[in-house]
Write a structure and sequence with these properties.
The chain is of the alpha/beta class. It folds into two domains: about 210 residues, Glycerol-3-phosphate (1)-acyltransferase (3-Layer(aba) Sandwich), CATH 3.40.1130.10; about 60 residues, no CATH class. The chain is built from 16 helices and seven strands. A seven-stranded mixed β-sheet has the order 1-7-6-2-5-3-4, with helices on both faces. The N and C termini lie far apart (about 45 Å). The model has no long low-confidence stretch (mean pLDDT about 95).
Length: about 375
């Protein structure tokens, strides 16, 4: 297979890049983007710089790198990535991570890769986010590829197999890494659990050998932890509405609002932990399992790595103590940290809803559930 076989989902190539940049710089929102990424610089100079680029790599290593620097400087008090030194420069990997922020989980990993002399990974881009030409252009210039969500069963199977073939092509043929979340959509309740359907999708491109199907992708679990959960209040409101109405209907522009909120909201400390990849030797004992059981077991391995490597912050312990009416973890946080968390939670009072206690419990669960998940893993 070649890149041409995936024209419907792949990122822009260098031949398409310059036209996309012209559209980006002509956008009515270009000035706003310039103000955030390059404060103090003239928009005309930024436009000239972008028009001088000939490759996606130049765009990523200059504009996207600077954007991530600004996100860290303006909204993150301390950013740490552990395990990146164990990644070989010539080894393409499939990074599978928990998903807490629409954009930053993958973009910050790309930032770390550039900082460590590695080529950036291609990253998934949900079709639901392709709501404007500007988002499409910025995404595809940032090595994002399209992932379909939902649809009829037959269509979903075909798109999943196509996606599986593309991921394998990128990693095994082009020797380029890929990032994908462990499930469709962000974790909103604090429980980072891998959808076994994702594992099944990986194997669709090599159905004759389920062990090699995973081992050959160098599947590498990544654990992402934010001290202050991106869009925590928005997530709590969505979960509340889902539980009350039985379904949640997104409002126009909601995904874009979540992207912007995630970028500008104060996140405190952020930690990425890149865990060891899954090896053929590790997977071999699962050979005799049915495909369904195999997918479950591989998902369980990912869960154990991601949850074990998850960094718990004072907010997690505060929320757990508040939710369960106890002081079990009072040695894990200070009065100042406790008061700051209470002040954040009190913002929920701004919303006129029928059951404020339920909303508060959902909010606490977002921060408290990682503590519970860690306890489960440790007790296995």
């Amino acid at each position: 297979m070649s890149d041409k076989d995936f024209d419907d989902i792949r990122p822009y190539n260098d031949g398409e890049f310059r036209e996309a940049v012209r559209r980006i710089t002509a956008s009515e929102f270009f000035g706003l983007l310039c103000t955030y990424v390059y404060p103090g610089k003239r928009m005309a100079d930024i436009k000239d710089m972008m028009h001088s680029f000939n490759t996606v790599r130049e765009f990523q290593h200059t504009v996207m790198y600077e954007m991530n620097k600004q996100v860290i400087a303006k909204s993150i008090t301390e950013f740490t990535c552990n395990g990146i030194d164990k990644v070989g420069a010539d080894e393409a990997r499939l990074y599978v991570s928990n998903h807490r922020d629409i954009m930053l989980d993958a973009c910050l990993l790309q930032y770390v890769m550039v900082d460590n002399g590695l080529e950036t990974a291609q990253i998934t881009f949900g079709a639901n986010l392709m709501s404007s030409q500007l988002l499409i252009d910025i995404g595809k210039c940032n090595k994002m590829f399209r992932v379909e969500r939902g649809g009829k069963l037959k269509d979903f199977y075909m798109s999943s197999r196509h996606l599986s073939e593309y991921i394998r092509h990128v990693i095994c043929d082009n020797n380029e890494s890929v990032w994908i979340a462990q499930r469709n959509g962000r974790t909103k309740d604090g429980r980072d659990l891998t959808d076994q359907g994702i594992i099944k999708m990986f194997t669709l491109s090599m159905p004759q050998d389920k062990i090699q199907a995973i081992a050959s992708l160098n599947l590498t679990p990544v654990s992402v932890s934010y001290e202050w959960e991106p869009c925590d209040i928005l997530k709590a409101l969505e979960l509340y509405e889902t539980q009350e109405a039985g379904v949640y209907v997104k409002k126009p522009g909601e995904d874009q609002n979540s992207i912007l909120t995630g970028v500008v909201q104060q996140k405190g400390r952020v930690v990425f932990n890149i865990t060891p990849k899954l090896t053929e030797e590790e997977l071999a004992p699962l050979t005799g399992l049915t495909n369904n059981e195999y997918h479950k077991q591989v998902a369980a391995i990912l869960d154990k790595r991601i949850i074990s490597a998850y960094t718990l912050f004072p907010n997690n312990y505060i929320a757990h103590d508040l939710r369960y009416g106890q002081q079990t973890y009072s040695d894990k946080y200070s009065k100042e940290q406790f008061d700051a968390f209470i002040a954040r939670m009190e913002k929920l009072n701004d919303f006129d809803i029928a059951d404020p206690d339920k909303l508060k419990d959902i909010f606490l669960g977002i921060y408290a559930n990682p503590v519970e998940e860690k306890k489960k893993i440790e007790n296995q």
